[in-house]
Each structure stands twice: as structure tokens, then as C-alpha cells.
Amino acid sequence: MVQVGLNQFLIVSTILFSLGIFGIVTRRNAVMVLMGIELVLNSANINFVAFAKFGNFGLSGQIVALFVIILAAAEAAIALAIVLNIYKTFATVNVDEIDKLKE
Amino acid sequence: MTEALLLNISLAILLLPLLGFVTLIFFGRKIPGSHWLETGIMLLCLLLSVYTGFGKLAYYVGQNLIMEGRWIQFWNVPVLGQIQMDLGIKLDNLTVIMLFVVTLISFLVHLFSVAYMKGDARYTRYFAYLGVFTFSMLGIVLTHNILMMYIFWELVGLSSYLLIGFWFEKKSASDASKKAFLVNRVGDTGMFIGIMILFTHYHTFTFDAIFAQIASGNLPFHSGAWLTAAGLLIFMGAVGKSAQFPLHVWLPDAMEGPTPVSALIHAATMVAAGVYLVARIFVMLTADAMLTIAIVGMVTSFIAATIALTQNDIKKVLAYSTVSQLGYMIMAMGVGAYNYAFFHLVTHAFFKACLFLGSGSVIHSMHHEQDIRNMGGLRKKMPITYYSFLISTLAISGIPFTSGFLSKDGILAGTLAFGSLTGHWLIPAVAFLVALMTAFYMFRLVILTFHGEPRDRHKYDHAHESPFVMAMPLALLATLSLFFWYGANPINPGTGWFLNKWVQTPHTVVPQAQRFDFMKTETTETEVEGNNKAVAGHKVAEAEYITHSEHYMHAMHQAHYPAMILSLFVGGIGIFFSFMMYHWKKIDPDKIAGSIKPLYNLSLNKWYIDEIYDATFIRGTMLLSKFLATFDNKVVDGIVNGTATVTRFISRASGIFDNVVVDGFVNFTAYLSGLIGIFFRKFQTGKVQTYIVMVVFSALILLFIFRPFF
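The joint structure predicted for all components is written out below.
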């Protein structure tokens, strides 16, 4: 029986972070990119909670995780609104075609 | 009639002609009849100078009136220290007489010119020039210092230049004016050096101050030789202006100017300025200087008289006669006959002006014919001209009852006295020879022009007596050539008021050692009864001054009657031969000319002096300038051009370096920046995802790098 320790938590969070980054980088659809961001945020949450459990920080890690969840919800709301506006402006949500920054 | 009034009037006389000049030169064309304005100014000047002369000679005959003002003051000049220059007017008897002579002749010439110059394209300008000439001449006469004299001297030279070259369309006239100016400049250079010798030592230009210094024994640079040099160098100015040998060559050429101008400038006034200058510096002339001056005058009078014998141009004869007479005056100054030299200056001014105006009248009526071989018989056509011309000719030949007789006799007596006192007998001998020649060539002129049968019938028929404004000056000047203006005695001028009261030889200020023997002050030892018994019988040297003039006048007095008889004799011979050759035609002049061909040619060709100058000075100057021009063209220009070529080469190299190296470097920098930009633009895609990839990879790389610190 393997004792579930900090390492296991960090491994899960790393996998989750990598998947999120992968999603952000590879997806063409802006919504999919947003979903990748959610994954990255959640991997960070896992790290907070894990360090809170195994470290000597009290409850602060859990509380930060709660804040992050709330922020993620707000971020999703705003980001979706942005995506809608992008769609209105460019008639697409493909991020490859939205390269106005270059100019 | 106070001193200040006389001085102010003479200042007005000086400035009025200048006013006329300025008015005419700027507004002459706008004022109708502006020549009458100028003539009127001259008449006013004449009246004022008559008034001044009367006041001076009647009330202040024995004293000099001086008005002066500080012109400029230098407190500290290098070498010289503190100096000041004064401007001023000096009225002495010489000045007022000259004032009268200049203004009278100037006025008459103005009057004469009104008719003579009628229809000339530059009529008003002519009168303006006459005005500026009169102004300058009056300046020479009035000034009390030698610097102002030099300034007016140059102004006179300038106005002479303008008037000789008045018809500058004629090449000969413009050449003559240039010649006159340049030849005068030679003399003026000497004069300026002489002035500077005096000025560097005495720090003043004023005549009286300089003479006072010399009289007190303070010689220039403490040497009599410098005094002689100063006197002779200043005399060089007179050599130029008074057309003395060897600078006489300009005066005959100056006859290219209008004839009234010749009468005013080149006969009566300007050329007399040289004699006037010698009179002004007479008291500081040393024995050596005086002897040199006498010899220069003698040579001049002789050469000019011989040339005048054979000339055929009426004005040329008169010109050489003028040179000869000026030589006479200078010679008289040199032998110490100061008063007679000045007397002759005045009488000559009148009769020579009359002769020149008479020749102008003849030329005018003969339609600009000047060759006496084409004249003859004009006596009947032009009686006034003839008689005034004749009287003046008698005067210049030294016939009794004329003014010329008085002054010429005085000069001849002066040379005789000089000969007897110093042993220089050549001077009186030449003087009498010149008197003979003068009588001969003047009567030759009169006979060929006015007597006999007309040789050019066509021109004779058109000849006519000149209008009143031309005849009147002639008559007036002829009257002034008679004796009674200068003294009541027609034989001995010494008792007349002119010489007895007005003009007296001044006492020399030159130290004893530099004087002629006959001018030395004699001291006689006389026994004086002393008040003190102890020194009774002691011989005390008491100076008893026998002045130059007393001693010399005594010799002159003795020479007077011999000179008079001899001069009448030689004058008679000259006139007699003249009548024999040209009137009665008993002697054929051509035969004589043929028998002494070389001498005749020498005279006809003016002693080849112009040719000699042409071969030496002019050719030499031309060669020198040609050499200098070549030097300029080849060497100086070569250096300049070489510098230019080198500079051009260097700039071309510099240009290439700029284009290739500097520009290349700048362009390369730009090109490199462009390359770098192109390279880095690739990373700037504008896609967020690319950036994220970069961030992630960068973070990984950083992790890898900083691994040891974890």
C-alpha cells in the first residue's frame, strides 16, 4: 500500500498543469484555450491544498484555493464575454487568425 | 578796417569759388546761365581781394596778419611724441598781391570763356572746374603752413589734370593730362619728403614757427646739409609745378586743354605757384640750395628759349616762352633777387595771360587753326587783339614803358650782381642770351601771325574780331602790362611803390656758415666808451648787421644801369633780326636753318627730351612692369594655381573616402540593423499562443540553467 504523500499530489498537479498548457498552446478554438486555463488554475489549486496539508501553514492554502475558484469563475465569465466580442468583431474564434497584436 | 575783418574777408575769398564749384557740379544743369553765376562769384572775389589788398597795403603794410586754429592734436605719437597741426591763413604783402592777381586773371578768364567755350557739351562742368582750380590756387596763396600748402598743391594738380583733359575724347588731350599729373607727382614726392624732414624735426608745419626755429640755430637733425636737403626737396615741388628742367615736359603738352585754361593755369597762376613756394621758403634756403636753384632756372630758361625759336604752333611758342620766363623767375630767386622774382611773377602773369587769351582769340576766329604758318595779316581784321598782343609782346621782350621792362631788368641786374659777388658769370651771360632769344621769337610770333599777307586766304576771310567779353579782358590785361601800375618811374622800379613799399627781400634765417659770402653778417670792432673806468678802452665787439639785402642791393644798384643798357641792346638785336627775317625778308630763315641743321633739328624736336624720357624712364618702367607681369603670371599665379590643384586633388580623395568608407560604414550599420530586425520580426507573430510557448520554454531553460540552486 502506497502512502499518498506530497509527491503524488505534485505529480497529479504537474500532469494537470501540463495538460492545461498543452491545451492552451495547441487549441485553435478560443473556448478550448479558456478550458486549458481552467486546468492550469486547478493544478495550482491542488498545489495550494497539498502544501497546506503537508506543510505547516494552517488553513491559508485552502482559503487561497477557494479564492482561486472564485477568481476562475469570474475570469471565465469575463473571458467568455471577450470571446463573444472577438467573434462579433472578427467573425471567428480561431486564435491563429486573431493576430492584430502584430501590427 | 580791422585785422579780423580782413582775415574773414580773405577766408570768404577762399571759400566762395568752392561754393561755386559745388553748386555748379551738382545743380549746374538745372540753373539756366549758371556760368554767369560762377563768373559773378569770381567778380565778387576780385572786388573782395581788391578791398583786402587795399586794407592790407594801406594800413598793415609792415605786419603780417595771421588767423589760425587747431586742426588736430595728437598727445602721444610713437617716435614724435606730442604733435599738433594748425590750419590758418596768413596775410602778408605777397599774399594780398597774389590774391589780386589770381582773382583778376581768374575772373577775366571766366569772362573770356563765356564766349570761347560757347556750345561746348560740358559747358557748366568747365566753369565748375575753373571754380575748383581757383579755390585751390587761393588756398596755396593764403595758407600759413606748408601742410595745407601741400594739400592745395595737390588740388591744383588735380584741377589742372581735369582741365587739360577737358576734351578727353581727343587721345592727345587725355594723354597730356596724364603726363602732366604724373610728371607733377615726381616733383611732389620730393616736396613731401622735404616737408617731412622739417616736420619730423620741428613737429610743426607752420612756416613762421619753422623759420623761427632755424633762426634760433636749431637746424634739422643739427646739420646744415639737412637744411639744404629740405630746401632742395621742397624746391622739387616747384620744379614740377613751375615746369623747370628736367620736369618741364608736361607744360607744352598741357596746351591740349582749352586756351583760356592755358592762360589761367599754364601761364599766369598755377605755374607761378612754384615760384611762390620758393618765395615762401626763401629765407631758409642755404647757399648751396640757392646756387642749385639758380642753375636749374638758368638751364630751364635757356632750353625753353631755344625750343621756342622754331616752334610753329602758336600755343607751343607761348608755352615754351612761359617755361623760359618761369626759369627766369626761379633763377632770380636763386641769385637772391627775391623781390624782382616776385615782381616778374606778377607782371608775367598779366602779360602772359594776355598773350594766351590773345592766341585764344586768334584761334577762335581762325576756326581752331593753331599753325602760325597758315596765319598772317590778321592785324587789320582783329585790331584789339593785335594791339593788346603787341603790348604784351613788348612787355615780355623788355621794352621801356612796359611792366616787363622793369621786372626783367631787375632780374638781369640781380644776375649781374650775383655774378660780380660770387664769380658765377655764366648765369648773367645766359640770362642776357635768353633775353635776346625771347625778343626774337616773340616778334617772330607777332609778325607771322598779324603782319604781312595772309597765307591762308580762305581762313583769313572768315576771321573776325572777337566779341566784347573776349576783347575786354585782352584790353584790360594789356593795360596792366604798362609800367604805371607798379611805380611812377618808368626806368627804375626800385623807387616805385611795388618794390619800395610792398615787396621787400626778407632776411635770411640760415646760419652764417651756410650763407653766401655776400650774405654773411659782418661784425666790425668798434671802441666803446665803457662806463666803468677800469674797462675803459677795452675793445668790445659790437655786431653791426649788414644784412643780405643791403649788401646785395648795393651790388644790384651798381648793376642796374649796365643791365638796363645791355638788356635794351640785346632786346633790340632780337627784334631787329626778327624783322629782318620775317618782315622785310632780308635774311632767309630757311637758309640759316639749313646751315645749322643739327642745332635747328635739336630745337625743333625740343632737344629730344621727350624721346630721351621715352627711351629711359617710360621704356624702363614698361620693361619692369612687363617683367613683373610675367612674374605675376608665371610664379605668383603658378603658386596659386598649384595650391588650387593640390586642394582639388585632396578634396577629391576626401570625397572618395567619404563616399566609400564613411557612407559604407553608415550604410552597413543600417543594413545590419535591418537584418537584425528581420530576424527578430519572426518572433513577433502577434499570436498569444506562440508567446506562451516561448514563455514556457524559456522557463524550462531557466529552470535547467538554475538547476543547481534548487
